[in-house]
Amino acid sequence: MEKHTDNVIDTLQEFINKPTPEDTVIPPTALCSEVALFRIQLSGDWLYQNSPLPTKFAKLFASILHGIDGEHFLITPVEKVRVEVEDAPLVIVDFVKNDTAPSLMLKSSIGTEYQIADLKRLKLTDFGIYLPLERGLWGKLSRACYYNFVNEFNLSDDQGPDASRF
Question: Longest C-alpha distance within the chain, in Å?
């Protein structure tokens, strides 16, 4: 019985001495190539080596797309690939205002959905309205969505969104 107890104690000691996930430093993923293999056009269409990428693959890749210091990358635990973006990486085609909480559910042209709660960070430019999304990304409102958004939130050049309507 003592031998069995010693094994349990040794196992518990090993477990206690293991580093926690917070203690483990994960090195940043290295860039695979300086050449951008993917490109996102102004229309929101994705290209891979200048060939159209099917929407189902664009949607999949959008789930690992990150915006870092004005550049865009597809990042996995083992790879990092540069993505060339003409304007915004995602084109927002529809939004739904949440009636129970102050937030919006956004839908992109490739079918991805995003929830945002803070309209104060939106960018209103001469080229359109840009909304902050996750992982450092921005979504640009499509033309029809732009007009619906302006009508819904009474946007003007002098003020941001009317928070009382959000």
Answer: 80
Residue with tokens 């060339």: 84
Please give the structure tokens belonging to residue 115: 């929830």
Picking from 61, 43, 63, the residue whose alpha carbon sits closest to that of residue 53 is: 61
What kind and span of H or E run contains 99?
Answer: none
Exposed e or buried b per residue across 127-149, where buried means at least 16 C-beta atoms within 10 angstroms of its C-beta? ebbbbbbeebbbbbbbeebeeeb
Cα separation, 132 vs 4, in Å, equals 57
Q: Cα 109 vs. chain centroid, distance in angstroms?
A: 14
pTM > 0.85:
no
Is 165 within 8 Å of 152 (Cβ atoms)?
A: yes
The residues of the chain scoring below 70 in pLDDT are: 1-8, 11-13, 15-27, 155-166
Alpha helices in the chain (DSSP H): 2-17, 55-62, 143-153
DSSP structure class, residue 96: E
Give the residues across from 84 on adjacent strands.
Answer: 39
Rg (alpha carbons) of the chain, rounded to whole number: 22
Tens-digit pLDDT profile for residues 92-123: 999 998 888 788 999 999 999 999 987 888 99
